[in-house]
Amino acid sequence: MDHNGWVDEGFGAVAEEFHRNFAEGRELGAAVTVFVGGRKVVDLWGGTADHRTGRPWERDTVVPVFSCAKGVVSVCAHLLAQQGKLDLDAPVARYWPEFAQGGKERITSRMVLTHRAGIPLFDRKLTFQELTEWTPAIRALEEQEPLWEPGTAHEYHAHAFGWIIGEVIRRITGRTPGTYFREAVGDKLGLRTWIGLPEGELHRLARLVEAQGRPPMPDAESLIVRSVTVNGALVFPGLDHPHGWNSRALLTAEFPGAGAVSSAGGLAGLYAAAATGLDGAAPLLTRDTLSDALAERTGGVSWSGFPDLGVRWGTGFMLDSARFRPLLGPRSFGNDGAGGQFGFGDDEFGVGFGYVANRMIGHGDARANGLIAALRKCVGG
Questions:
Q1: pTM of the predicted protein model
Q2: HSE-up of residue 332 (Cα within 13 Å, Cβ side)
Q3: For 51-107, what is each residue's pLDDT tens digit?
Q4: What angle do CA 53, 59, 60 make, to 5 degrees?
Q5: N or C end of the chain, less CB within 10 A?
Q6: 22 and 334 in contact (C-beta within 8 Å)?
Q7: Coil, strand or helix at 91
């Protein structure tokens, strides 16, 4: 396949790896964008955006990027903390008094951002419609009790992460997190990234397909399945379900923990803006803010006994991990998505990276890792 786009001199290794992913049959459609020092140095795309019609992937194509949403929400939280509007170590109830029920009085925003709050899933069963209405999800979180003493253990907070931090953002700014992100960051920088895709962007949406050979999901009553499906209100992967991850109903709603939609350039631009600034502008996040975000807070075996896969978390972001996701070094921070998508930044190397694809393979798969390894050679990491 002849890919579209370009790379600057010195970044040919990224183009070679991008081409290899297609040549070896890993991709249907995909894109990768890289900024270095606030300047775009890689912009590649290719393949098929919709396998039903043969519509090609274009430069402005967007795709569901699942939990890459956590990076979007985390940037917003750190931006508010940097402005003095949010204390990450203060109780969530300082901003959201109704949250202080059932033993949640001491839970802080940092505990949520590090997956240590004791609320990895909803106790109450909510319908899909209730989840799209925001308030029912917030009321359910107010009423429930943590599964463990907050701050003492960790478990991946798949969706609760987004609604809890999202409601803190709403209480502070008067805007839901998707709206706040667009007003404070996305619109100003022209980023093609949303939590709640506008109707006018639906025609640019790539259609997800499930890769053959994906392992079956665990039992429906397991903690991880209840967490990622919100007790069955979402079908995972369930791509073509009426409320599935290809549906207008889901993607135009705000699912702030796992419902982002983005182009590769949108993810790369967000992380470049956070780490270095774009086109000569000051970075969104200062070095002190990033240093706080990058301090390792979470890793190892989870509360439920889920094994240590090598994932390490700072405050809201995945960190460089030799076992799970080797990035560029100790100043790298990012988030991945269930289909294999990934975005990260690094202020030491001045990098913003975004990779998106519509063939769902999974967390930590070889496609993004290969592109990051190629980039590492180019920048000397």
A1: 0.96
A2: 25
A3: 999 999 999 999 999 999 999 999 999 999 999 999 999 999 999 999 999 999 999
A4: 80
A5: N
A6: no
A7: strand
